[in-house]
Structures are given as C-alpha cells and as structure tokens.
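Hi C.,

You asked whether I'd gotten around to modeling the 354-residue construct. I have! Everything is below, sequence then structure, no commentary in between.
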Amino acid sequence: MKIRTCTLSILAFTLAAFLTPPPATALPKIKILATGGTIAGAQTSTSEAGYKSGAFSVDNLIAAVPKMKELADISGEQIASIGSQTMNDAVWLKLAKRINELLATPDVDGIVITHGTDTMEETAYFLHLVVNSDKPVVLVGSMRPATAISADGPLNLYNAVGVAVDPQAKGRGVMVVIDDMIFSGRNVTKTHTTAVDTFQPLNGGPMGEAYLAKNRWFEKPVLKHTTSSEFRVDNVDALPRVDIVYSYANAPRDLVDALVSAGAKGIILAGVGDGNSTDAVIAALADAAKKGVVVVRSSKVGFGIVRRNVEVNDDKLGLIASEELNPPKARVLLMLGLMKTSDPKKLQELFYEY
C-alpha cells in the first residue's frame, strides 16, 4: 500500500512538472534615445507640409507603438529635441558617450535612436566609427511627421526595434532602418527631398529588409567599425573643424581661402566628376595643404569611387582621395582622423580602412 501511494505521488509530481509551463523568457532590453526630427514632428494642419520637428517626446513615441513591448523591454531617454538640420558636434558627443555607457552594462541589449533624416547619414557614420560595442545600434526616422496622413514613423520605429532585438544584428555596426530596409551607417545616404524611400546605399546594396520584426539579412560590412575601430570619444569635448567646399563651373578660390583664414583644420572638396574642380580651386586647395590644412577630394556626384592621382595629382599636391565616401561622410572620418594625426599619408590609409 505504501509502495502504491509513493508511486502515485511520484506520478503526480512528474505530471505537475510536465504541465507547468516553463518560465517566460525575459525580453531583450532596448533603450530608445530620442533626438527629435520629423518622426517626432507635429503639423499645425494636416493639409500643410510644414511642421515643427521634435514636438513629441520619447515617451509619446513609445506610447504610439504599443506592440513594440511585445518585442522588447523598452525604456527611453530624451537626448535632444531638434531638427537634424541643426545637429551638431555637442549632440554627437553626448549621444556617443551615452551609447557607450549604456552598452557597457548588462541592462541594455541594444539601442534605437530616433533622428531627423537630413543629417541621419552623418550621425550614423559617426556612431559607426565611435561606438565601442557589438550590440545593435539602430537609427530610425521618418519622412512624414507624426501628425501627417499616413505617417511612416510608427512602423519604422517598430521595425527598428525588431532589428535591435534580432541576434543576427549583432556585430554589424551602426545601422539605419527606414521604409522596410536595413542600411549600413557607412553606406546609406538620403537621395530625395520628400519620398519615403529616400534612403539608398552608396556603391552597394542594403544590409537587409525589415518588416514587422521579420528580418531578412543580405550582407555584413567588411571595413572597420565599432569594436574594430580605433576611434574613441568618451574623453573628447570638441571635434576638429572640417568644412566642405562645393565645386561648380567657374568656381573661384575665395571660399577655400576664407576657410583657411577661419581656422579650418581640414577641407573636403565636393568636387565635380571624379573629385575635380576649377584650376583656381585646386590651386587654393594645394596652397591650403602646404599650410598644414588637410584636404580630401570627394565628389558631389553621389556614386562612384574617388581614387588617388586620377585627373588630380594628389601625390604632388599633398591631397587625399576619399575613395567611396561622399563629402559628408568624408568629413566625419577626417574629423576623427585629425584627432590622431595630421599626416596626409596616414590619413589616406584611414580612408582605405574605414
């Protein structure tokens, strides 16, 4: 009788253990850092195109997409409330330092940054070079303000969180998620003033597709970034001044000379064609290089590679070729490079490596 009772007790215990559901798996912890932009913008009228950037807080953005909480344990911080046309070095440094601080703890598994689209490609590449973690960092924005008819921000934000929680996103550097696509922060650029598919990759394809937290991955970045990058800004309070000079028919040398006089440490040429310009501008850039100002030739064309000593004799003039980087991205890399060296040869190597 005792044996039978014991056997029944064991069976009951085993059945209870079998029927008890396993403990719920903890959701990934995602921090949303808000900087403003169109995604947080509000119109005075839905029939008008104008709006105020950064009108809604990070808490408003999170509350507008409640299903995100099924993907992650989400919390938010307001880093800035600006349109990205006024993005600046101070916000960049504040953002980068906070990201590195958060990702260094086990309490954050990934970060999503809401950002305006005007300078998103620059912020994305800056962070791509200075974030010291392989955890996912995803920038997201929208082309229509939050109050617009058919606003694109909520789905973009949901997809961004869906990428940030994806284990396959780890180690891919800083990314941009918008219009169902995943782009590398190095290669993405804005190509249209208002279209929702404005972001496109330079000289390559997208990293993947993101739709309703179901991601399809295509490729990984091959050049240095994040954990393999040598650039760190955690103890940096200011970035070197680097400016961009735009080339056009009959362009004079005045702007180059003015920037040198104003104290620019570096100048990026947004050149015609293969990073070229008028004789006057090239002469001014060569003179600037002789004075210790670092000069990088890029192109305003948008696609293609600016190689050394093609059309312009970089070796003779002391100039640097930007390779695949467009003028805004070339500026970002040069700003960081100048914190380490002003040697054109060493800086040229950075344009090959990053």
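If it helps when you're writing up: The chain has two domains: 29-228, 242-353.

Thanks,
B.
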